[in-house]
Structure formats: structure tokens, C-alpha cells
Amino acid sequence: MGDALGFKKYKRATPKYETVEKRVLHYQEFDEKVEEDFINKQAARCMDCGVPFCHSGCPLGNKIPDFNDAVFKSDWKSAYEILISTNNFPEFTGRICPAPCESSCVLGINSDPVSIEFVEKSIVEKAFAEQWISPNTSIERTGKKVVVVGSGPAGLAAADQLNKAGHQVEVHEKNTRVGGLLRYGIPDFKLEKQVIDRRIQLMEAEGIQFICNSEVGKNISAATLKNESDAMLLCGGSSVARDLPIAGRNLKGIHFAMDFLEKNNKRVAGDNIDFSTFDLKDKNIVVIGGGDTGSDCIGTSNRLGAKSITQIELLSKPAAQRTIKDPWPNWPMVLRTSSSHKEGCEREWSILTKKFISEDGIHLSGIEVVNVSWELNQQGKVEMQEQKDSKRILPCDYVFLAIGFLNPQFEGLLEELEVQLDTRNNVNCNNYQTSVPGVFSAGDMRRGQSLVVWAISEGREAALAIDQYLMEEHARLKSNFASALMI
Ligand SMILES: Cc1cc2nc3c(=O)[nH]c(=O)nc-3n(C[C@H](O)[C@H](O)[C@H](O)COP(=O)(O)OP(=O)(O)OC[C@H]3O[C@@H](n4cnc5c(N)ncnc54)[C@H](O)[C@@H]3O)c2cc1C
Asked: Can you give the pLDDT at residue 475?
């Protein structure tokens, strides 16, 4: 451990952001560059705890005190080697992870936690800048082939691990570009897409084959790919969006958040798409859903020149600080204010949408809402109650539904393979293997809608399960062959 008293000497700090006025004019990331000394001091705040709770807070088990210590000592290369030993893509998590590690940092008990995510991003960007990251082109091959369906963070992490283990990896992606929600969900102002391209180029140079515009189960048969490979991994994500089937739902101007975000991400990437449905300039916007997807709709709407943006949420306003219900080191259900919120929007909680309203019978002109309260009923269950006389209309031209995803799409891939689903309609697995032998699944398709860091973790674990399966299969075939020779 470097500086034993670093946590007393230095306050938590992260880079400043470009001003709101400037950053809403573009889609690039907007955190300012800092000197190395700034990062060293942040790393010095790590207390190198006897029991580092940050390890278990991070789904990847990142060795956080170890890389903090290396950064404090300016041994950046060691810091990078420690970081990459548990996380294939720190350049993604270092930008967009909600950082459960920071919520479980021991310093966070009575002070501000170490700015772990910022240190992580600094390490990997230093490694890229110094050209320490280069493709390994001399991987010893096993002769086994694995087909990965879906190129989100789960599919990418699994592909990377399986390729490193020597298997030939072919990734099929239905979209025109690789990356899943990293590319088509998360806006560029949170994650610039050249960050994904840079990683994909490395993976291609290491031998992974990416096949885009290939929807398995639709324009290429899953059975064919299964027969042509030794194992298959399904990482198709959780794409069936939760709807709000109330009166007026079919009015023009009501869209699923992902339809909006995906089209805008494609437009920003320079794709030739029709964006005329989303003419947000000087319009009133309501975002239904108080989570991250909703926040991305706010940032995007501000960049498109919306007149007003209101985000409404059915649940009550979270507490500003941890409460007795979610003590440290648990993930706290506290009020989160993103950089997009700070760019301008109204936020309201405990709001139930009753119906969508139109003046001309075609286009949306407002939504009727009521206030609700959440009370314990006699059975001890929390129950929603509408507040009397709270009915009102929020005028709006667009509504974005950002109320989550239900499950993966069943038609096509899953239907053709006849894999069993669990009670939530996600893919049912035992150690990542589905009900169909040799077919595995990971990420949101298996665990349900989650986070990038969990998708990477699932991809790594599924790769391990596939590697074990292939090697056992290899040993079994070898022993059958040996027995056959003995007869
Ligand atoms: C708008 C939005 C913002 C988010 N922001 C954050 C954030 O800031 N931080 C965070 O940690 N998490 C965030 N998340 C969640 C995170 O993006 C997901 O949990 C994560 O991407 C899941 O990874 P995945 O690989 O399982 O699936 P996905 O990223 O969904 O990738 C699945 C891929 O499979 C492809 N596919 C599906 N079916 C087929 C098929 N039959 N054939 C070929 N390809 C197929 C899809 O096209 C897609 O590319 C966000 C989610 C959304 C929607």
C-alpha cells in the first residue's frame, strides 16, 4: 500500500465536465482531461482494506486495491495488467458502469468512496495511449469452433475469452454494426463509438470473425450453425420492451425509448436513415420511466432542441442518502442525478399515467396523470393508491416509454432451437448451458435486463463453462477412440 493516509489527505474528485451550454451542442464525451498527479491522488485514497468489499461489489471481482496501489506508485503498466486480468473491456465499464464497487467501498461508510471508475478508465486509456495493448496473433488453436450469437458486451466478452483459450470464434450479429446496446442503446455522449471500434479491431486481429447483418433463426438457420460448430452461445439480449397499453396508446408521437435511441445513434454514426418521425425541435417531451434509459432519452432530447422535457416515475422519490433498508455495503436505492438530468429537465415521482390524449384524434397532445402514494396494506404489502383530486394533464408532443424490458425475443432463434425458458421467460440454464446440449446462453438473454458489467461477467463465466464442456467432450471422444482401438 502506497500512501497510508491518502484517504485523509485528499478529497474525492473526478474530472470536470464541459459546460451544459457547450456539451448539448454535440454528441461527444465531455469530461475534461486531467494531469496524472490528479489520478495518483485519487488512487492514493484507497485504504487497501483487509477485507476489500469493493471486490465483491464488482461483478467481475476487479482487484481494485491492487490497481489503485500501482497507480499511486505511477506503475501504470502493472495497473493495466491487474485490471485486464479480470475485465476484458475496462474502457466500457470505466465510462458507463454505475460502479457498484464504489457503493461497497469501505471509505464510503462515513466519507466519499474512492473514485474507482475514473481510475479504471484512466488506466486503460493510458494503456491504449502507450500502445501497451496489441493483438496476440500467436494463440495456439484447439481445433474447436464456437458460434456466438449477439455482439453485445456478453457476446464480446465470451468471444474474447474463448478465442484466448484457442477456440475458433465466429460472432453473428443481426445489426449492421457490432456492439449491441453499447452501440445502439447508450448514446455517444456517454460512450463514443470509436471506443467500441478500437476494441473490435483488436479482436479481429486476434482471429475472431464478426459476421454482421446475420440474424440467426431468420436469415441463417440456428440448426445449420449448431451443426457446423462444437458449441453455441446465445447472447441476444433482452429486447422485448415493456409497453403501457392504456387508452390512446396508438396515437402518433408515442415511442419505445429504444426505437428513439437506436435511430438517433444510427443517425449520429452517419447511417442513411429516415429520422423524420423524431422532429423534437421546440417540442414538449415526456419520458415515462425514471431509470438510465429514461436519462439517455433526456440527454438526446436536449441535443435535439426540445422545448421542455419532463421525466415521470411511478415509484416514489428515492431518499437522498442510504436508509436503514439498504445499509452499506449493499447497492443503495438512492436518488441518482445523471449528467443528462443536469442538462435540463423536470423530474416527478409517484405519477401514474392514466391515458394518452389527442386534440385531433391522430397526434398526441398530452397525457392524463394522477399522483399516487405507496402505503403498507393490512397484509404488510406495499400498495399503490391514487390521490384524490390530483388528476391533471401534462401537455406533450412526444412520449418515450422507458419502463424496462420484459424478456428476450422468442421468435426466431430461441423458437428454432427449442430452448427452455425460465419463469420470467429468460433462457433457462444450468451453469450457462441451456436445455439443448452444447448450446449455452449469457447476458441479458439469460439473466434478464441488467448492466454492462454483469454482461461481461456472464460472458466470461459462460466462456469458462464452454471451454470445460469442449475439453470434456474432447477427452470423452479421445477415450472412446482409445477404447475402440483396444477392441
Ligand atoms: C438505453 C440503454 C442504456 C443503458 N445504459 C447502461 C449504462 O449506462 N450502464 C450499464 O451498465 N448498462 C446500461 N444498460 C444496460 C446494458 O446495455 C445491457 O445490460 C447490456 O448491453 C446487455 O448485454 P448483452 O450482451 O446481454 O445484450 P445486448 O447488449 O442487448 O446485445 C445483444 C445483441 O444480440 C443481437 N441479437 C439478438 N438476437 C440476434 C439473432 N437472432 N441473431 C444475431 N444477433 C442477434 C442484438 O442485435 C444485439 O446486438 C443500458 C440499456 C439500455 C437499453
From this structure: 74
> What are the contacts of 141-144 at 24+ separation with CB within 8 A?
141/166, 141/167, 141/168, 142/166, 142/167, 142/470, 142/474, 143/168, 144/168, 144/230, 144/231, 144/470, 144/474
Question: Domain check: are 20 and 124 in the same one?
Answer: yes
pLDDT of residue 183: 98
Displacement of CA 482 from its chain's centroid (Å): 47
Residue 367 Cβ contacting ligand 1 at under 6 Å: no
- Indicate if the pLDDT at residue 296 is higher than 60: yes
Residue 485 binned pLDDT confidence (cut-offs 50, 70, 90) = low
Cβ neighbour number for residue 468 with a 10 Å cutoff: 11
Q: Domain of 260?
A: 245-403
Give the CATH number, domain containing residue 68.
1.10.1060.10
pLDDT of residue 373: 96
Q: What is the pLDDT of residues 352-362, one digit of tens each?
A: 999 999 999 99
180 lines ligand 1 (CB under 6 A): yes
How high is the pLDDT of residue 1? 66
Classify 281 in phi/psi space as left (phi over 0), alpha (psi -120 to 50) or beta.
beta
pTM of full prediction above 0.85: yes
- For ligand 1, atom 37, the nearest C-alpha belongs to 236
**Ligand 1 neighbourhood includes 298 CB (under 6 angstroms):** no
The residues, ordered by sequence, that sit 6+ positions from 291 with a Cβ below 8 Å of its Cβ are 402, 404
237 CA to centre of ligand 1 in angstroms: 5
Q: Confidence band (pLDDT; 50, 70, 90) for 160?
A: very high
Among candidate residues 403, 422, 450, the one where a domain is terminated: 403
Q: Nearest-CA neighbor of 264 among 293, 290, 238, 284?
A: 293
The rounded distance, in Å, linking the Cα atoms of 297 and 106 is: 34
